[in-house]
Design a protein that fits this description.
single chain, 155 residues, alpha+beta, seven-stranded mixed sheet, 5 helices
């Protein structure tokens, strides 16, 4: 399995994987649909990154690092793994890649929003050193009831 950077030919996989995941666990919010339909506009062109997990020429997972209003802080978001590939450690490989990327880019920290019903995901985030911090009242996602951060480089 390889982790590869964003390529427009994988734009549909980014949207499809995330919508499938959202529909499985929650529902697709209007903001989700907008971002997933225009990843270049909302993520890439704003200085963000999208990575894909590729196995046997098939895209089986994805994650994005989206710019925040704070310089050198990116939001780990839009992580999804295809149903057939869940349980194979792909999510962990994507997180590991994002942390290594953040270190290489000399970012100060990564943040993420999640929901506590996703116990496995929260466990994995904690395993990788993310700690819980308060969720601001105007968070972008209605479903977010937990916010976490991982300090990468002390600035």
């Amino acid at each position: 399995m390889d982790i590869i950077p964003y390529n427009t030919k994988h734009k549909d996989a980014f949207k499809h994987l995330n919508i499938e995941w959202l529909e499985t666990y929650f529902y697709v919010e209007p903001y989700d649909l907008e971002v997933l339909s225009k990843p270049e506009t909302y993520i890439i062109n704003k200085g963000g990154y999208i990575f894909f997990a590729q196995h046997n020429d098939e895209i089986v997972g994805t994650v994005a690092l989206m710019p925040t209003q704070i310089n050198s802080v990116l939001e780990l978001t839009k992580m999804a793994v295809s149903p057939e590939a869940r349980g194979l450690g792909i999510g962990q490989k994507l997180i590991e890649h994002c942390i290594a990327f953040a270190k290489a880019e000399n970012l100060s920290k990564l943040i993420l929003y999640s929901n506590t019903i996703l116990e496995n995901a929260i466990h994995i985030y904690k395993k990788w050193g993310f700690i819980e911090i308060p969720v601001e009242e105007n968070a972008s996602y209605e479903r977010a009831n937990i916010k976490m951060e991982k300090i990468i480089n002390h600035k």
